[in-house]
């Protein structure tokens, strides 16, 4: 038998290409009994590899190819420590595994220098249970032999044998056809003969089949940012680094069969076993050493009486007792206490904590002990959705903290449990479909445009991972290019091989592990920037039984907290936790669609849904939050119809009514699916949750088995009915089948009500604040989006709608954040570029201590030591110094003069040139000695341009103010919204190729002569939220050039062009003066979306799209489903040149919101409403 003992999986990032599942499928097909994993310096894939091998009946050998420092791991001198040596370490047993993770962890935390490095000290300390191999040409012994230093090689071999012990160190023989290996292999054999150190044959596998060599070369080029044709990239120089058969390996060294036999002997010795499912919670120390269970019960009952009074209803007490019993039996008392402790700490130090997140909000015990803040009894939330005896995985409390204070919470758990007991968690960025195409195309040397044209044919669906195989099935154009163009075929074939492989490792945004023993005793650690992270992913850590917490930062908690503090300055007794949840004015705000800035409810689609739904209670918000998602969105029309006409609701069986009445006959929540199983078939809620999970993950074997149980029941061995089944509960078989089928189809869409309830509660709080305390709320909201000009501009516009003025920055009134100023809001200085927090605090502190700034000179003099020229100019440009008696041109002219004068004064001060009566701590110069320039101010346009330069917005005026009403009328988009949309790689409302209309001022024009000797223009268009480059091609320019003037307000229509690592651009096809845009929209609706002019045009809503699978059309259909009404819908499919008349049942309620969304998605000329 031969066993591969030196192998690199995809977790040797951008180097190894042996994908674990495919590798082990290959090994199984060949009949291989064992395989090793030895990734470079990491153990990222060890557990995945172990599970996949065990599943196939193959022995997994856990190992790592470590980097060995030339001297100590603490030495970091480039000339002496820049080159490391490789060494393969294999775990013989669990002691060896423990020692290996210690070495790998310390290599990262103590020895990192370009690579994670161990040294002789670590090898000596942690050698027990380890079998070592001398590695490839990069090993210490092969390198010495390559340098013709046989004595050094021999000394190293004997040193390693002394460290690991006899028969625990082997000399590797490799032959990939490389000349250097041919040269040194005889010397390695000689070393073995002279020292008695045994030989072992390995193949340093980096890919599985020989034909994968090109794919592997491409992977290396991605790592080094080279093309295949370039010199200087990594090149193995051979096509032999693949997973060879036993026959191929033995044929390499036929004269040394023992070297191949030794692989089997090593494999026989290696026996590591991972323990899954056993929880390893840290101990929680109670005050005064009280018993943990007693302490937990005491805390829970105190909370029960606090929430429900001194004599709570018996059913609530019973529910708490049931939860306490389950928590204790399943061993999670400490878990609750640990979470309770850090939530308690957060509240004590004023860190805002969310009311709940995920299924944990369904636990009454969590509510009573203060972990969550929403009543699970009132909203019918299920504990079993979070924890039940049938559940095999650990429960998971995810906790939201104010985003700006999350680091404090991590510091708290580190202080409480010890730095070595807390670590963050690794996460991997993978090569997605489009990304792999772009990466491979770049390596193949294809032009950006050629690759981009292919990548853009890959569909994107929010919330779904579209693979290249799926893309080739769903995109006819992509399939055609694949079949017809050999270059595209090669590109996609290579991208398919790399798709899904991990590309880089980073730190999970929220995950934190807390352990009873040091984390490195359980899992290997690594370093990402300054964070210590577990090398295993969140899912793997849960499987190993470790306590994983999600510490999430939520911006809206900061907003609520900041608004509450501002309100309390006027109303000290106000508490957001005590607001009524049945305030009609708040629900009226939702009904009116005035939810800009409301948590989870501010998208246009959600606003539209609210206007149709007309919510009246929190339950309505919870349902909306659950339905407005990809998938369940298609059920919104039915939900709204049933809500408006409850008399029309029908139930498949009367037993469903108590469960579905709250959602008007629709299954909306996962909890409802569980309740249907319990009520109709007699399932325990725990078993019901398991079936629900199987349905959501489309586990067809489980679903088929449970269907029989749901209908006919399940009998235990003793003859009792474990599950009675529907038939025994009076539900006939046909009805049961129908209900089960509906649950099957909806289970993957149903949402976690506990999560929706907690987040809808937050949404209500934000709406309450906006309704009754709009100035405080909007000030807090503006402060929360300082780093997003688009959002800032949008919320300032919302302030205008609320009749709240946002006053320009003022050095004697502004604070760092946005603040309430009488009936207005004062602009916060943190929103001004080039002004850091430290400078702002110093400037404000000076003002508070010594009074208002009196003049420009006074301001400069008092802040001179903290200010540089760039910052001072930003204060001037944003208008913050306008109230100091000089205009902006005078101040900008004076900036270098006053700074020079103050610098000279300070220099004379330092050199001792101080007059008898001068103050030694101040510059000599007095204000009367400094002559401010006298000149006329900049033009209004120049002042606005300055403001936009340093804040991204116009502050003292708006050159587009006269045209603001056009945004809704013509469906124009804000530039800032589009730019923000593409900051997220997944995109959002807008996508590449979408037609959009922009309204803005021309800020710059450049022209260029094309290869065809035609002229095109590059126009910079600005609105109040941002700027975008508009490309006007020659044919279009010929018609619109008279309109292109700097400073002119234009309405520009065209297609978005989005390229990787570039700002979005607009490919222009139409330009109108903004003043003419509205009249153009009023023309009779005969754009391409409707039948040709001259024919009678029937009333209705007309859309024009390329085809039925067009992504923009698919998104548009979501909005059409929400706006259910009576207007006839017509869709023109341009490619097929046919018009589709929708059935009457698909009628539309046409309104301004719908038209704006449709025009934003499809383009103005592709949407027409004929009345």
UniProtKB/TrEMBL annotation:
It comes from Caproicibacterium amylolyticum. SMART domains: POLIIIAc (SM00481). Residues 3-70 form the Polymerase/histidinol phosphatase N-terminal domain. Signal peptide: none annotated. Keywords: DNA replication, DNA-directed DNA polymerase, Nucleotidyltransferase, Transferase. Its EC number is 2.7.7.7. One of its GO terms (biological process) is DNA replication. GO terms for cellular component: cytoplasm. It is found in: Cytoplasm. This is DNA polymerase III subunit alpha. The lineage of its organism: Bacteria, Bacillati, Bacillota, Clostridia, Eubacteriales. The keyword Transferase applies. It catalyses: DNA(n) + a 2'-deoxyribonucleoside 5'-triphosphate = DNA(n+1) + diphosphate. Pfam families: DNA_pol3_alpha, DNA_pol3_finger, HHH_6, PHP, tRNA_anti-codon.
